[in-house]
Amino acid sequence: MSGGVTVRVPAKVNVQLAVGGARADGFHDLANVFLAVSLYDEVTVTPSPDRPYLTCSGPYAEQVPLDSTNLAARAAEALASRYGIDPAARNVHIHIAKDIPVAGGMAGGSADGAAALLACDALWGTGASRTELLGICAELGSDVPFSLVGGAALGTGRGEKLTDLEVGGTGFHWVFATADGGLSTPAVFREFDRLTPQAPAPEASPALLEALRSGDAEALAVTLTHSNDLQPAALSLRPALAETLEAGVAAGALAGLVSGSGPTTAFLAADAGAAEKVAEALRDSGTCRSARAATSPAPGARVL
Ligand code: C5P
């Protein structure tokens, strides 16, 4: 698109999501081990003569809100206000080419927020530092800073305070199975509170971090059992996900878990060939809407 800026941004899977009790502000303290995965949205911002407006294309487009609640629109507005962008220059067309499942526990909305922020920053030449951009990301949502940085990171606080993590070897192979309909993240956290009245302080698992560092898929698979504290809540709200998890493991996945707050399920595979086989078996199983292979870690948001 002429005069526009396009940013590509990855989805994420949480290989660990340790959740503490509800805080006074309603959020939960987390030990959140993020891995960016090679499923991407592309967000293009183009100067527009009209008021800011959003469009979306791709397999999940009809599920994306195209109003001011969309994180991409909120990111553009937040950056414009912070840097005093002239009201006329604020008028942009934001197009989201969406390939990350919507309301699926893969931070698709957060990804679009981070991408729109980076794209508007490049379009308007604000000169914002990386730290300033990360600060705006944290205000937009707990997962938005990670969408900007990508790779692998431990998120503490409500998930927004990031420490980079090392991933060894040649990375990991995954399959993501999408479900019909999304799950609301606040609803899953509420169900977690109901099921877990006395949640201990969240801590990252040393064995899991070591498995990432060494790039050892089998060792990582062992640590994925019970690594997502939101999984029992997601399964309680959507019991059919247990069948998807069983089908993926029966097809040869090393491990299966709910991705974040779900309902997407994630399966770790030994290699690219095994991932393709698991994806095919899941598609044939009738327990999911679609299944796709992807790799991690993937780079964070970047201008194309
Ligand atoms: O930060 P974000 O806006 O993405 O969070 C969405 C919702 O998820 C919050 O309103 C809250 O209900 C829940 N949440 C939480 N604790 C976190 C992150 C999110 O309870 N650490």
Low-confidence runs (pLDDT<50, min 5 residues)? none
Work out the radius of gyration.
19 Å
How much of the sequence lies in strands comes to: 25-35%
Mean pLDDT: 96
Q: What is the assembly state of the chains in this entry?
A: single chain
- SSE class: alpha+beta
CATH topology of the largest domain: Ribosomal Protein S5, domain 2
DSSP summary: helix tally: 10
What ligands does this structure carry? cytidine-5'-monophosphate
Instruction: Report, as a whole number of angstroms, the end-to-end distance.
Output: 12 Å
Query: Outline, from the CA principal axes?
Result: globular
Q: Spell out the helices and strands N to C.
A: EEEHEHHHEEEHHHHHEEHEE
Question: What helical percentage do the residues reach?
Answer: 25-40%
Number of strands: 11
Number of domains: 2
CATH class of the largest domain: Alpha Beta
Largest sheet: 7 strands, mixed
CATH architectural name of the largest domain: 2-Layer Sandwich
